[in-house]
Structures are given as structure tokens and as C-alpha cells.
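[job 4471] stage=fold_predict status=RUNNING
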Amino acid sequence: MTVEDYNKTIDLYADNLYRFILKNSRNEELANDVVQETFEKLWMKIENVDSKKVKSYLFTAGYHTMLDLLKKENRHAEFGISEEYSYKHEEQYTDIGELLGQALSRLPEIQRTVILLRDYEGYSYEEIGEVTGLKESQVKVYIYRGRLHLKNYLVRIENII
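[job 4471] inference complete, writing C-alpha cells
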């Protein structure tokens, strides 16, 4: 990868990476830090990263950097643990984007991550597996379960009105 390729990579993927990390962490400062650290890691390995696989490298490195920073912030958090879902919502929303964001925030971290990579960023199941370190079948299961929870949340009339 050349310096010119690196600069093009920043233009092409910095915003997408930022949105992905922000949707997962819901913390603007953390998202900025992760994006900066990820591009720093890419710069340090500029000779070893193939420009054709740079998007996958960025999202993989960004995802793992985010997890590391979140673990440092909250040593007691266990990621991927499923919890009871309450689909009742007490506030009224008219903006479907806000409602979808609320529904996404109720998902376990791993389900939210795979859904964001698949539906927001357009990654294939195989690519999501590479980014998250999961098998393709696990990715499909997490996406299915996450979408099922989103559907159940979004079809409840109390959440929409």
C-alpha cells in the first residue's frame, strides 16, 4: 500500500468506520479515539496491508480496538451475554430512525455489531466472520436473533405511538 492509497483510504472509509463504532459504542469521544487509533495502526503496517483488503483490515482493527477500550473502561462488563428484553417503551416517537436506534441499543453487543456490519455497511457473512472472529454460521444466527428482537420491538404498537 502506498501513501497515496492510504490517503484515499481515509477519504473512503473514515466516516463509515466512525459511524460503525459510534453505533456500537454510543460514545462520540470513544468513536473518535478508535478511528484515530485504527488509522494509526494502518499507518504502522502500511507496507504489510494489501490495498484491496484495507476496508476489512480497518473494520477488524477498529472493532477490536473498540472492544479493548470498552473493556478498559468497564472491567466488569461481559460482552455477548444475553439479557431479558423489555419491549415496552414509555416515550412516544415519530422518527423511525430514533426508534430503530433505540431498538438497536437494546441488543447484546455482538448482535448489534453483526447487524450493523451486515445491514448498514453491507458486509458479507464471511467478511463479518473475519471482522468479529466468528464462524459464518454463528454470524447468521446472531443476525437472525438480532433481527427477530428488532422486529418484536418495532411491531409493538406502544413503541411506535
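[job 4471] summary: Residues 3-25 form the longest helix (23 residues).
[job 4471] exit 0
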